[in-house]
């Protein structure tokens, strides 16, 4: 895939429309009007950004634990086994992200489920399959007011 | 709170709105709801704060923000709410959560800092630590290495009608 050269339109779409997405019949038309371009130009630019994996979606960030339940979890895995164990965990559809971090507790993932029983079952299954205990760090309080991610274009590229 | 239509609506858009001229009409068609009801329900969910924000969700790693630090702090319980609220106002802080401690894991406050490189992130962390007078507080910085999986929340809502 050829790399997308970011135009001013791409940059504005990436930075200026992370919140307050229009809740009107033709939201992309409303954005297009703000940018002085056509609706189809906005739609193709967003499609390009999505195809290039620069955006994951246009959509909502849903407050955690209001539909379904979730927890951050971590396990300590010897380096030699890390990739295998990580891939085992990633295969569960209930895992929505899974990162290696620089610590003895080195594999951190988020489990999302419809209810507590399902969540507990997934954790138990991961423990049984990997042979390592899973530490759970469920959210107690969310202090973060999400206004989006402010992009500094000198950093991008 | 959330009724069944709200839950189905959130589940149907959590992976993104369709990129077409009338996305709310298309979602409505999938769910058997009129376009205006989709818009009104989403507006209400937005106002209630169940939707934290709606818009373009960027992939910061692909955009050059390769350094991602999860910083965990051991804040006295009586102060965690105040400190958490203050921490979340720093522009470079991308998440700020209170979580339970464990034996051998005394940390109860988590924040995330995404930056171009480690040096930038560590400088921002130092600024945060100094400004909030947290120099005496035990903390650990866990930079991310490999990303094995990253996707938006995917609630399946298996007990709901599809």
TrEMBL record, chain B:
This protein's record includes keyword Lyase: yes
Secretion signal, residue range per the UniProt entry: none
UniProt cross-references to InterPro entries, sorted A to Z: AsnC_trans_reg2, HTH-Siroheme_Decarb, NirdL-like_HTH, WH_DNA-bd_sf
Ranges for domain Siroheme decarboxylase AsnC-like ligand binding: 63-149
Top class in the EC scheme: lyase
An MF annotation (GO) of this entry: lyase activity
Description of how the protein assembles with itself and partners: Probably forms a complex composed of NirD, NirL, NirG and NirH. All proteins are required for the total conversion of siroheme to didecarboxysiroheme.
Siroheme decarboxylase NirL-like HTH domain span: 6-51
Name assigned to this protein: siroheme decarboxylase
Summary of the function given for this chain in its UniProt record: Involved in heme d1 biosynthesis. Catalyzes the decarboxylation of siroheme into didecarboxysiroheme.
EC number(s) reported in the record: 4.1.1.111
Species of origin: Methylocucumis oryzae
Entry keyword Signal: no
PANTHER family noted in UniProt: SIROHEME DECARBOXYLASE NIRL SUBUNIT, TRANSCRIPTIONAL REGULATOR, ASNC FAMILY
Top-rank lineage group of the source organism: Bacteria
Family listed: Belongs to the Ahb/Nir family.
Reaction(s) the record says it catalyses: siroheme + 2 H(+) = 12,18-didecarboxysiroheme + 2 CO2
Gene3D superfamilies per the UniProt record, alphabetical: 3.30.70.3460
Pathway it works in: Porphyrin-containing compound metabolism
UniProt keyword list: Lyase
């Amino acid at each position: 895939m050829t790399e997308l050269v970011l135009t001013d339109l791409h940059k504005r779409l990436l930075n200026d429309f992370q919140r307050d997405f229009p809740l009107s019949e033709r939201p992309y038309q409303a954005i297009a009007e703000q940018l002085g371009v056509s609706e189809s130009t906005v739609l193709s630019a967003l499609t390009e950004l999505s195809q290039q994996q620069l955006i994951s979606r246009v959509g909502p960030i849903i407050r955690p634990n209001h539909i379904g339940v979730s927890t951050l979890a971590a396990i300590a895995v010897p380096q030699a086994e890390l990739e295998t164990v990580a891939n085992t965990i990633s295969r569960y559809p209930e895992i929505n992200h899974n990162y290696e971090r620089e610590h003895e507790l080195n594999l951190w993932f988020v489990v999302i489920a419809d209810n507590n029983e399902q969540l507990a079952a997934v954790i138990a299954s991961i423990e049984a399959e990997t042979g390592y205990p899973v530490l759970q760090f469920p959210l107690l309080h969310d202090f973060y007011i999400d206004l989006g991610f402010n992009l500094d274009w000198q950093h991008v590229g | 709170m959330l009724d069944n239509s709200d839950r189905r609506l959130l589940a149907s858009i959590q992976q993104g709105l369709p990129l077409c001229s009338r996305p709310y009409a298309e979602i409505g068609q999938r769910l058997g709801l009129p376009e205006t009801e989709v818009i009104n329900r989403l507006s209400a969910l937005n106002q209630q704060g169940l939707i934290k924000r709606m818009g373009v969700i960027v992939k910061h790693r692909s955009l050059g923000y390769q350094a991602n630090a999860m910083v965990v702090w051991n804040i006295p319980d009586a102060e965690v709410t105040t400190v958490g609220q203050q921490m979340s106002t720093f522009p470079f802080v991308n998440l700020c959560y209170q979580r339970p401690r464990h034996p051998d894991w005394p940390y109860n406050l988590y924040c995330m800092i995404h930056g171009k490189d480690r040096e930038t992130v560590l400088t921002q962390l130092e600024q945060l630590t100094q400004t909030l007078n947290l120099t005496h507080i035990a903390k650990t910085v866990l930079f991310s290495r490999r990303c094995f999986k990253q996707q938006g929340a995917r609630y399946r809502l298996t007990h709901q009608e599809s």
